Amino acid sequence: MKFALGKKLGMTTIYNDDGAQNVTLIEIVPNKITNIYTNEKDGRNSICLSIPKTNKKSFLREFRSDEISEFSEGNEIEASIFEKGDIVSVSANTKAKGFQGVVKRHNFKGGPASHGHRHSLRAPGSIGSAYPQHVIKGKKMAGRDGGKRATISSLEVILVDNDNNLIAVKGSVPGVVGRIVEVKSK
Questions:
Q1: What does the alpha-carbon distance between residue 124 and residue 141 come to, in Å, rounded to a whole number?
Q2: Which of 15, 57, 107, 183 lies 20 to 30 A from 64 at CA?
Q3: What is the domain extent for residue 49?
């Protein structure tokens, strides 16, 4: 299993033998292995990675793996761990959009714009029923949108640049530019 923490740099287009491909560039900041947890001692086989986030803070993530014998504490993981053609999953927090109405948040159609519907153009409509006389949990209503953890699976690594510690994955990944993302393969 291959895994690393990186910083999303943005999207671009790469032209190669397969034609034009839209890719997301991820800078694999040198990851330091801070802890190795074993099943016998800690109840799980996993590796804890950290990268410096600011002057005094670091970003920590733990990756479960059965192949922990290949790693040792204090080593660094770089972009060279990945190869062209690897299939990876990328996880991060999505872009937060704040408080949104039902039209933008849940793709509701909205009401008609004429024939006596003066103030109900983007209203949700009826939200309850005769029984059970309350709004049922999970009802699609207005609220905070985005800012949740998302994982995009089955992305192909198109390019590995060891000199600049960059990888390019085919397609888009969650989060805004500059956000820390988790990249792992099976």
A1: 7
A2: 57
A3: 3-96+149-185
Q: Tell me, yes or no, whether 164 and 110 share the same domain.
A: no
Backbone angles phi, psi at 39, to 5 degrees: -65, -35
Per DSSP, 81 falls in state G
CATH number for 105:
4.10.960.10
Other beta carbons within 10 Å of 132: 8
**Do 92 and 33 share a structural domain?**
yes
Give pLDDT tens digits for 70-115: 889 999 999 999 999 999 999 999 999 999 999 999 999 988 989 9
Q: Look up tokens 């733990």; give the residue.
A: 62
The type of residue at 64 is R
pTM score of the predicted model = 0.85
- CA 107 → CA 82, 96, 122, distances in Å? 38, 17, 11
